[in-house]
Amino acid sequence: MLMLACHDIGQDCDCVEQGKTEEELMKNAAEAAVKENGYKEVDFMTLEMKEKIKSHIIK
């Protein structure tokens, strides 16, 4: 299971998102950020954000 701590990518949030694959984790992180932190889904579509997320994945 892959994990991502939201605060590791600069969010003021203590959530930890999970996914079986990088794609699933990215989707879960984006959905949580939209729902919990007021982000727009397009904010997580940028190459910069995708790279930031990938660099903080806990395997």
Number of domains: 1
Structural class: alpha+beta
Write out the strand line-up for the largest beta sheet, numbering strands in chain order.
Answer: 1-2
SSE pattern, N- to C-terminal: EEHH
Which regions have little confidence, pLDDT < 50, spanning 5+ residues?
Answer: none
Largest β-sheet summary: 2 strands, antiparallel
Shape by Cα distribution: globular
The percent of residues in helical segments reads 40-55%
Mean pLDDT: 91
Termini gap: 7 Å
Q: Total strand count, please?
A: 2
Strand residue content: 5-15%
> How large, in whole angstroms, is the Cα Rg?
10 Å
By DSSP (H or I, 4+ residues per run), the number of helices equals 2
How would you describe this structure to a colleague?
This protein is α+β, with helices and mostly antiparallel strands and 59 residues long. 42% of the residues lie in helices and 14% in strands. The chain contains two helices and two strands, in the order ββαα. The protein is globular, with a radius of gyration of 10 Å. The termini are close together.
Observed structural traits:
59 residues, single chain, alpha+beta
In short:
With 59 residues, the chain is α+β, with helices and mostly antiparallel strands.
Task: Describe the secondary-structure layout.
Layout: E1 2-5, E2 16-19, H1 22-37, H2 47-55
Antiparallel strand pairs: 1-2
